[in-house]
Amino acid sequence: MSQQKNVTTPQHGASLGNCLSIGAGIALLLILFFLISGGWFTQQPKPEWEKYWMIRPLIVVPIAGAAGGALFYFLGFLRNQGGWITALAYFLSTVGYIIILWLGTVFGLAGTWWN
After folding, report:
1. Which of 13, 31, 70, 91 is 20 to 30 A from 4 via CA?
2. Model-wide pTM > 0.85
3. Where are the domains of the chain?
């Protein structure tokens, strides 16, 4: 009879795909709200903008949101530590997501609304 070793691996609350899709979904909703509230449908775009200028932010911002979701997933090992490290991991995840989303929004809207 042989002995079996119990190997424990860190448990994530969600898979990488779930974190990516949740991050991208939140970003998509935010950029849609931003575009619609800014008059996307009612304004005529400036002549120097491309014809389909709104495609760029609708693609770039959810990709940035997915990157923020990946950051949340990869900081999962810190959230499993317990104590103040868990609180720090949630803080870093939230601040990192906001920064990544802000940079993605600026890059997505560069040359149009934020020129």
Report:
1. 13
2. no
3. 54-115
